[in-house]
Predict the structure of AcrR family transcriptional regulator.
Amino acid sequence: MAIRDTGTEQLIKDTAMRIFFAEGKFNATTQDIADAAGVARTVINYYFRSKDALFKLVFKEAMDDTKRRLDEVLLSSMPFKKKVVTFIDVFFIELNKYPYKESFMISEINSQSFVMPDDRHSAALEPFFKEIKQAMDMGEVRKMLPINFVLNLFSLIAYPLLTRPLFKHMLEIPDAKFEQLMQERKKMILELLFI
Amino acid sequence: MAIRDTGTEQLIKDTAMRIFFAEGKFNATTQDIADAAGVARTVINYYFRSKDALFKLVFKEAMDDTKRRLDEVLLSSMPFKKKVVTFIDVFFIELNKYPYKESFMISEINSQSFVMPDDRHSAALEPFFKEIKQAMDMGEVRKMLPINFVLNLFSLIAYPLLTRPLFKHMLEIPDAKFEQLMQERKKMILELLFI
DNA sequence: TATTTGTCTGACTAAAATGTCAAACAAATA
DNA sequence: TATTTGTTTGACATTTTAGTCAGACAAATA
């Protein structure tokens, strides 16, 4: 007989993603996930064999998803500056839906058992570097190693959101204020990156 | 009788710090730490009562240590630009000794059980903001919210080191090359922050 | 030296989490 | 409808990890 699609497999993956990336419970157990999904814990073994296998799968799919979303922007035919603006927006939306995703990824990547999937080289990066160089030649952006432009872009967007709880406390600002600050940062980042 | 200082308590703390921050083993067990320190696992209970208590203590001491080191720079009487340069250097040295410390902190802060210690407000921050404003008025740095200047400073330094394994792979660069890139970033960051 | 007392250890207990399996259940199909 | 087969469940077993405790050990000191 063919495989029956009861939606359970997807439900478990979605629930795991929610728990990890939206709720920030990095050390969730299989029981936690099963409870949240409303299924018996053993279905996780049925569909994914082991906890580890589920975790690895969810991680890989999350990485691929992010990559796809960002590549789509990088490979589009927008003019350079508009592309960067869109890139920032997409990044912000992603981090709004899954505030802990980035942090989770970093933990995983930095962990011992982690092995980087082979296909991590983005095909979108190479041509984007060319565009950066062009923009530099045209005096649109400050001259530096194109790699540093990309690093700066990621850094300026992601870091404040990663360390959000720390900074919110250090600077004694409430949620709404922080949100507003982040919106202002979007503009500021552009002004910083472009001349 | 007085407490005998056998150095074991400190040894355990140092070992835990090494395992967490230098080796990146975030999920180390008490057995792992005891083995690495060359003591029986139960001494951890003897000195720290529970695993949780040890973890909390190590975390707090690490936070305090970082804070002290950075505050020292911020409160010094150097001229503004030199202060920022020194700040960047200190940050780099710290992240060189304990590459995973920042990542560990972020995980912890983002975790459920985490409660922020009360005394997190740095007395050094207030006067530093004043200095930033002055530098802006003097046209030394780009005009923006002083808070954004600080966020940018942290972001540009820390993020690439946090995501090091990811970027190293994505960009296919070996260790030495990455190290060199980070050194170049120091200069680039200054050029970006100062006019 | 004898005693006290802080330090350390190994054996045991307890708790938490993962994995296995037989059987129940339900959807497809003969 | 009867049978097949994919799905789901609960009971049980295993593994992993943390905590307790009595006693061994060793440094201080009376």
Summary: Chain B is about 70% helix and 0% strand. Chain B touches chain A through 48 residues (CB under 8 Å). Residues 1-4, 6, 8, 39-43, 46-47 of chain B lie near DNA strand C (CB under 10 Å from a C1'). The radius of gyration of chain B is 20 Å.
